[in-house]
Design brief:
The protein is of the alpha/beta class. It has nine helices and ten strands. The strands form two sheets. It has a six-stranded mixed β-sheet, with helices on both faces. The structure holds adenosine-5'-diphosphate and magnesium ion.
Length: about 260
Amino acid sequence: MTDNIHPPIIEFSDVTKRFGILTVLDHFNFSVAKGEKVTLIGPSGSGKSTVLRILMTLEPFQDGKLTLAGTSYHEQGGKGRFHASEKHLRQIRNHVGMVFQSFNLFPHMTVLRNVVEAPVRVLGMARAEAEARALELLRMVGLADKKDHYPVQLSGGQQQRVAIARALAMRPRVLLFDEPTSALDPQLVGEVLSVIRALAHEHELTMLLVTHEMRFAREVSDRVCFFDKGRICEQGAPEQIFGSPQADRTREFLSSVL
Ligand code: ADP
Ligand code: MG
């Protein structure tokens, strides 16, 4: 939990996000402590992906303030365009990695190049160093032997493990997962969850995970937030949320998915 000595690494303060006339987040407040592993659960369309996309600076917002690893930016005036400079946005983005439901690997690059490219281009890392690091990460996700393959030659589970290695190559302080196993055949879910489980043991890494894998959420999260209609309706330790949910909406949701 956050306190005065350990300021949160992520903080949404009164963030309002609209798409046209649809208000997805209305004065949204949410903070995550450094190293904390937080899972967002909730019905489809409740705004979970929007929260992650704002953190990744993929979406501007209309009002409020976002702070990430000590860098803040404000949005005001309802225009829905980024007010921060590109440099400022990059400062924020460099702290965050994101893994999407649909892997999003570069199809024309080998596995190794997929992992090497961003550290070389964005961080200016020497190619040899980036390759050594990429191989280490590919070993960690169990895919070093596939380094010269192209994404199309891999299973969905393997592609997602490459996507995780690629996100880690940027040495993010915050790692975001948006339904990382939802697009996978059931028999491939386990291998991806194993990699995420290993990362959840990394003390320094802050993780924000959106998933429908409730058993997994219970196992790896420090905190579970039940999200409904753009608000955190209820949050707490996994034992509390899954074991004795207080809000009717949480109970209804859990009984529909468990
Ligand atoms: P979740 O991830 O919880 O399913 P989302 O954050 O994707 O929810 O979506 C929240 C709401 O915002 C939904 O009503 C969705 O239709 C809407 N929305 C999301 N992205 C866009 C967009 N680019 N344009 C318009 N509406 C959007
Ligand atoms: Mg979503």
